[in-house]
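Friendly challenge for the regulars: who can give me the structure tokens for this chain first? No prize, just bragging rights.
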Amino acid sequence: MRALLAALSLFAVACTSHLSSRGTSPMTAPTTPTKTGYAHVNGLHLYYEVRGPLADGATPLVLLHGGLHNTLLDAPVATRLAQGRQVISVDLQGHGRTADVDRPLRYEQLADDLAAVLDELRVPRADVLGYSLGGGVGLRFAIQHPSRVRKLVVVGSPFSSTAWYPEVAAAFQHLTGAIADMMKPAPVYQTYAAIAPDPASFARLLDKTGELQRSTYDWSEEVSKLSMPVLLVFADADSMPPSYIARFYELLGGGQRDGGLDGSGHSKSSLAILPGRTHYDLFESPAMIAAVEPFLGS
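First reply, four minutes later:
Bragging rights claimed.
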């Protein structure tokens, strides 16, 4: 029962609102997208929405939601980021307005789906920001399609399945459709039920998400070969140890030497560890936006 409650806490309690854990007001009231549509790619009708104009010579930003999230839940973050650039948000396979298909969730396939969406939108190159599950998709997109990524932001997502604290890994064992009814009061279900093509598929989404999170992988060798600038954003009380986060940064060339008075020893990649945050309130924190915007603008 403790593990089951942990699973619910991991994927439901943390998503109860767009308010911070301190009970403050929403970061940004979401705006209506300037464009929405469906890209017909890889057997999917994949939903996307666009906010903000694309200035001449600018690079759009792709925003990738976490597990069980969707574009509706993440609209306040998309709106805030779109104040300075064009933001393209997508509902990944089985999430939000994108109907599920008869295939498992796999990071590699979701990354190829994203490439196909950008092809349809005629976006040759983009910045990519992904949170948790979406961070894994963004990381795989950068690995599999490196020429299409100018800058990558990974928020609260690991490069290997061994990263999670034991209690988090135990919670993944109980992330199945069996807890669907227990999650119905949570906004992750409420928004899903409001916009999904088939709300009855929520249990199947839980099954597939749990299977994905229980899969084993290690992308350390591929991460070490990434050439684009990468910003890692984690909470100081995240779901993985600080030692693992430091290792991630080292794989990207960070933490190898003194930065120097002139900054010449700084890696092309950067690390932000946000104080007073957890994995569950990290993405919607104004501090996350404050860390991301200078990196993307530089």
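Strands lie at 35-41, 44-51, 61-64, 87-90, 126-131, 149-155, 230-237, 270-278. Residues 107-120 form the longest helix (14 residues). Your move, everyone else.
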